[in-house]
Amino acid sequence: MTISSRVPRPLPDGTRNATVASLEQENTQLRHAIDSHAAVDQAIGVLIAVHRIPPDAGFEVLRDVSQHTNIKLHTVATALIDWALGQPLAKPLEQKLGEAVQRHSRKEDNPDQPH
Fold it and tell me: Do residues 57 and 92 lie in contact, with contact meaning Cβ atoms separated by under 8 Å?
């Protein structure tokens, strides 16, 4: 019977520093992703409450507005949350948002109709 122990060996200083830096960068990226995802979910909630559309349509509205305004999805979501809290929306964003809500509301009302 062979028993092996896995005793951690110290890494050379340069390798350890690079590993720590890489893990810190990954941690920062994951925190940003979590924050962005939370903002998108909250913005979908605003769309559901205000426009009475289903969650899937809410995401599609955000995605459409992002694509048609060339604004990142999480930035559109944050602007919508700020609007729900009383801040004005920029006119182009407000216009594209209204258009997207109308498009996706019609799709939900007439799911068999070509889009």
Answer: no
Spatial distance between the Cα atoms of 62 and 69, rounded to a whole number of angstroms: 11
Q: Is 108 helix (H, G, I), strand (E, B) or coil?
A: helix
**Of residues 39, 113, 51, 52, the one with CA closest to residue 80:** 39
Which letter does DSSP use for residue 3 in this model? -
CA distance 44 to 60: 9
For residue 27, give the H/E element and its range: helix 13-51
How confident is the model over 95-105, as pLDDT tens digits?
999 999 999 98
- Residue identified by tokens 């890489």 is 22
pLDDT in tens, 28-55: 888 877 877 899 999 999 999 999 999 9
Cβ neighbours of residue 39 closer than 8 Å, sequence gap 6 or more = 74, 77, 78, 81
